[in-house]
Amino acid sequence: MSLRSILTTTLLMATTASAARTLFVGSGKGTIKSYEFDETANAQGLVKELASTSESSPAPTWQTIFGDLLYSVSESGVPAEGVVTAYQIGSNRKLIKKGSAKGVAGPVSIAVGKDGKLVISASYAGGGVDMFAADGYGGLTHSQNFTYTLNKPGRVPDRQEGPHPHQAIMDPTGEYVIVPDLGADRVRVYNAKSSTTIKELESIKTPDGFGPRHAVFYPVGNAKPTHLFVVGELSNSIITFKISCAGGQLKAKEIATISTFGTQSVPTGPPAPIAAEIALSPDGKYLYVSNRGDKTQAGGTQDSIATFSVASDAKLAFMQLTPSGGLSPRHFSITRDGNWVAIANDGSGNFAIFRRYPENGTISSLPTISTVNDGSACAIWYEPKVEYS
Ligand SMILES: *[C@@H]1O[C@H](CO)[C@@H](O)[C@H](O)[C@H]1NC(C)=O
Ligand SMILES: *[C@@H]1O[C@H](CO)[C@@H](O)[C@H](O)[C@H]1NC(C)=O
User: Fold this and answer.
1) 248-257 long-range contacts, Cβ below 8 Å, gap at least 24?
2) How far is the C-alpha of 296 from the C-alpha of 275, rounded, in Å?
3) Which residues fall within 8 angstroms of residue 300, CB to CB, at 6 or more apart?
4) Where is the signal peptide (predicted)?
5) pLDDT at residue 4 above 80?
6) Which of 40, 225, 328, 365 has its CB 3.0 to 4.6 Å from that of 346, i.e. a possible disulfide?
7) pLDDT digit string, tens, across residues 244-268
8) Percent of the chain at pLDDT exceeding 90
9) From the CA of 175, how far away is ligand 1's center (Å)?
């Protein structure tokens, strides 16, 4: 063994032996903070703040990581312009601003194309979708937009007075982008194959008053998707669509609907619960949805996360509701090894980290750690495949 390879091996061992994981927490109050979570420290695990940025003020309510770039929205109201900012994840997890670009007001979600050259944002307040050309180093140039109107309000007029695109999601093959539009009761579909322009296709209709917010393709991984799970914020239910992708088109057929409370009764409020995030486990065998405003947990003081098992034909079976560790769980994410779930509780402002058991999909009912943050709208794990030192 040469000295160089011994040194390289030692360095790799030093970095991979570290038990610390990174979590980025974006808040509705202006900051994106970098935290370290060390599951082995203090017997109980330890969370430590590493860095903070306010460059995505007023409201960095969503972040997406691609390689060592972190993209964040600055959510605004109308008529302010929306901003998408790219940061390089630097040493000690400091976010270094590299570029930004303006788009439709009120961006709330970002998708990145497979090669990293295409960035798409969905804007709730302004009712539109933007596309940006990305140079792969954080440079962003606005290239295209779609803005929508409604002829008449939807079934829930105070929330569906206009179109409200709520998320942008790339399909695993990188050919399609979908955008659930909460106000228009449809999932908008685009072909993004050309990677310089996106082309709108026929959208997928959801029932009146469903309020599609977020969605996830099934199965996980890079295979052609066979199904799509869409969560309806206004109906607190999940629709399963069977999908087929061929000839540049994505077609969907509704095959099942299940409550985000499973077999338990849906709290009637007021205020009524409003479902938020939906995600599959890394092995694709379990589906999770967060319920905001339900207060069904911890003696009526916390909201819930619903767990479903997913059969190979995408059939969902309700398993349990567990506490979210606070109020209004707007977002959550699961580590790649499936062992931890970080939940951003927007209402109580804290984020909570729970142990998850990959062998049976259950989430612990007590958090390992709960940390007060200045609002917690989005919590994403950063787990680089290779550490460069
Ligand atoms: C859409 O893009 C065009 C061209 O860049 C721009 O002039 C227009 O203001 C944009 N619309 C919105 C609503 O952002
Ligand atoms: C899931 O697995 C964990 C760890 O093995 C165990 O403690 C827990 O009781 C299991 N839960 C169910 C519902 O089987």
Assistant:
1) 248/175, 248/191, 248/193, 249/191, 249/201, 249/202, 250/171, 250/176, 250/178, 250/189, 250/191, 250/201, 252/187, 252/204, 252/228, 256/315, 256/316
2) 13
3) none
4) 1-19
5) no
6) 328
7) 999 999 999 999 999 999 999 999 9
8) 88
9) 24
DSSP, collapsed to helix, strand or coil, labels residue 6 as helix
Segments forming the whole domain that contains residue 189 = 39-382
CATH number of the domain to which 137 belongs = 2.130.10.10
Mean pLDDT taken over the chain: 93
Structure tokens at 138: 């954080």
Task: State mean pLDDT over 88-114.
Answer: 97
Residue with tokens 């790219």: 86
| 350 within 8 A of 331, measured Cβ to Cβ | no
Q: At residue 389, does pLDDT exceed 60?
A: no
| Gap between the Cα atoms of 329 and 308, Å rounded | 17
Residue 134 located in a structural domain: yes
Q: Please say whether the beta carbons of 312 and 343 come within 8 A.
A: no
Q: What is the pTM of this model?
A: 0.94
User: Rounded to whole angstroms, how far apart are CA atoms 74 and 106?
Assistant: 7
In a domain, 2, yes or no: no
The answer to whether residue 367 sits within a structural domain is: yes
Task: Report the candidate in 174, 208, 213 with the shortest Cα–Cα distance to residue 331.
Answer: 213
CB atoms within 10 A of CB 45: 17
Task: Please identify, by atom number, the ligand 2 atom nearest to the C-alpha of residue 320.
Answer: 13
Task: Judge if the upstream peptide bond of residue 384 is cis by omega within 30 degrees of 0.
Answer: no
φ and ψ at residue 71, rounded to 5 degrees? -100, 135
Q: Going by CA atoms, what residue is nearest to atom 12 of ligand 1?
A: 104
- Provide the number of structural domains found in the chain: 1
> What is the Å distance from ligand 1's center to 96 Cα?
27
Q: Please work out, in degrees rounded to the nearest 5, the angle formed at the alpha carbon of residue 205 by the alpha carbons of 151 and 147.
A: 45
Tally of CB atoms within 10 A around 374: 13
Confidence label for 6 from pLDDT (cuts 50, 70 and 90) = very low
| Closest by CA position to 37, among listed 48, 28, 29, 26 | 48
Give nearest CA residue, ligand 1 atom 6: 145
* Cα–Cα distance for residue pair 185/237, rounded to 1 Å: 13
